[in-house]
## 1
Amino acid sequence: MFSLFNLFGKSSEKEHEELLVLAEKIISNYVKGNEKACRKELDSLLEKIDEHIDDDDVPMSGSETKSPKRELIRSLVPYTSENVEIDQGFIDIMNRVIEALQRHSRES
């Protein structure tokens, strides 16, 4: 799997905070059972990731050709659909996103 830590490494502090707030709202809405709000915030998060994270910001190793940004987006997009259950896989991805953002915030 892609490295979320590296993915968020070069976003500005403001962008970083916006991404973290959105990710935390997603988890909060999920815990409250508000899937509609969860999906709405997820749409916003995906838009911000697409706008503010560049593939150039992500160090690639070896013969790796996949875009970590695209991999992250591809793994989350299905959950924007009401036909897809928000499951533990989604929560695991979101927890990794939050962990990576928090780690970068501490190191900044």
Note: The chain has five helices and no strands.
## 2
Amino acid sequence: MKKETPIARLRRQALHDGRKVKARGAKVVPIDEAPSDFHKTSLMRLLEVHHGKPIEDLLKGGTVREIGKRLGIHYSLVTKWRQQINKQKEK
């Protein structure tokens, strides 16, 4: 049996809890998203719904490896997302 990834577990829990989500292809995207200054991926939105905080706050406080471990994502994504957010704030 295939082991369930943390992201797959979040998607399943969001659907099970009855949160407002819609399927976009194979991805689950929360519907009630506030506008932001940068493009958010479906994973970013999913993590925001799960943790109840904006992605900018989730990416603060600690090293990229600590944040990646806490959110259940690879640390390279944390770096990439931080760069993307900072790039948009500079504009």
Note: The chain has one domain: 6-90.
